[in-house]
Every structure is written in C-alpha cells, then in structure tokens.
TrEMBL record:
Name by which UniProt lists this protein: NIF system FeS cluster assembly NifU N-terminal domain-containing protein
InterPro entries in the record: BFD-like_2Fe2S-bd_dom_sf, NIF_FeS_clus_asmbl_NifU_N
Domain NIF system FeS cluster assembly NifU N-terminal: 15-143
Origin species: Candidatus Uhrbacteria bacterium RIFCSPHIGHO2_01_FULL_63_20
Source organism phylogeny: Bacteria, Candidatus Uhriibacteriota
GO terms for MF: iron ion binding; iron-sulfur cluster binding
Source organism, top-level taxon: Bacteria
Length: 212
C-alpha cells in the first residue's frame, strides 16, 4: 500500500497497489473529442466548477443490451480516476454486463475491487456509479424506451432548513455518520425537530448502502 499524508500531517491516506495501477495506467480513458452519435449513450455527473466532473460513453449491443465499450474522461482526483478506470473494466469484462446488471453495480463493489479507498475519498466511487446510471438512462432515452428510465429525484426532508435526502446522502458520504455530525453539515432538524426520526432513518440507510 502507498501512504500519502494530508496537508496538515494529522492523518495518512492509504492507497492499494490496485488503486495506484489504475491511477498511473488508467484503462479505457477517452483521450480525444467524441462525436455526438459515435456512442450509444453518454453520462455526466458533477461540474468542473466544484472540482469534479465525470463523463462516460457506452457502446451497447442492441440485442443483449450488454455493454461492449465503456470510455470515460474525468476532471478529478486520483481516487476518481482509479474508481472510474476499474469500473470500466468491471462492466466490460467477460462479455460485458447487461445494462440492468450495470445499473445494480454499487459504489462498494467498485471500492472492493480496488482493495479499498480512504474514507474521505469514498465519494469518488459514487461519482462513477452515478455517471454510469445517467448513461444507462440516456441509452433508454435515445431508444424511446422511457419506461426503463430510472429518475433519481430528491425530496425535501426539512422544509425549514431546505434540506433534501440528497443533502443527507452527501453528508454521510463525506464522513458524517451520526445525527450530530449530519446536523453540523446541513443544519437539518435544528429548527424543526419533528423531522429527526426520518433523518436518523436516512443516515442508517445510507451508512448501510455505502459502508455495509
């Protein structure tokens, strides 16, 4: 494993040899401009303005709906590069995953394949997961099969603080695993304590979903 210290020298991040391999030698990276109709689907998540953006392109067998090619480009950290690189291998190896199999791919599956990521970098595997699902939706959108599109909508949990379930999800991914820690990040429930039981349920759900 590789030991990389944080700027304040108060902690060290550990990267496995697999992470280093996919960072230094990324697989299926898109190193050129892509024509609009060159691929069967495209997906995007994030924005360069906030530091991370990921785009993916898929070629899909129309009969079996197996992913034949997964190319990607990201503006992000080493963990984002490694996560997307290994995911591109996972969905195309052994004949390729079907779109439904790829949609079921979880961030924890990506992280396990990498041999682990630092806790504060776990959100990078989520970034890849979301871009892949966006591309799958795009494939069905282009095919006019709107019944196969899965919309991931946010719902407001706290009307007073204007906090959504997505805000709580992001807080958990950033390391807030207790109600108090989530409140520090989002202010959820501080002026509206009646929502706290629902917030605690969401925290448990996201902890189990992403961290087991």
């Amino acid at each position: 494993m590789s030991d990389v210290s944080s700027r304040d020298r108060k902690q060290s991040w550990f990267y496995t040899d697999i992470v280093k391999e996919h960072f230094f030698h990324p697989k299926n990276f898109m190193d050129r401009d892509v024509a609009t109709d060159e691929y069967d689907a495209t997906g995007k998540v994030g924005s360069p303005a906030c530091g991370d953006e990921l785009r993916v392109w898929l070629k899909v067998d129309p009969g079996s709906e197996r992913i034949r090619e997964f190319r990607w480009k990201t503006f992000g950290c080493g963990s984002a590069i490694a996560s997307t690189s290994v995911a591109s291998v996972m969905v195309t190896e052994n004949g390729g995953m079907t779109l439904e199999e790829a949609r079921a791919l979880k961030p924890m599956d990506i992280m396990n394949r990498l041999g682990g990521l630092p806790a504060r970098k776990f959100h990078c595997s989520v970034l890849c997961d979301k871009a892949l699902r966006d591309a799958i939706n795009d494939f069905y959108r282009r095919a006019g099969r709107f019944d196969r599109i899965v919309v991931e909508a946010s719902r407001v949990v706290d009307l007073v603080a204007k906090v959504t379930d997505h805000d709580i999800e992001e807080a958990v991914l950033e390391g807030a695993h207790t109600l108090e820690a989530v409140q520090q990040k989002t202010k959820v429930g501080i002026g509206n304590p009646g929502v706290l039981p629902a917030v605690e349920d969401l925290i448990r759900f996201y902890r189990e979903k992403y961290f087991g």
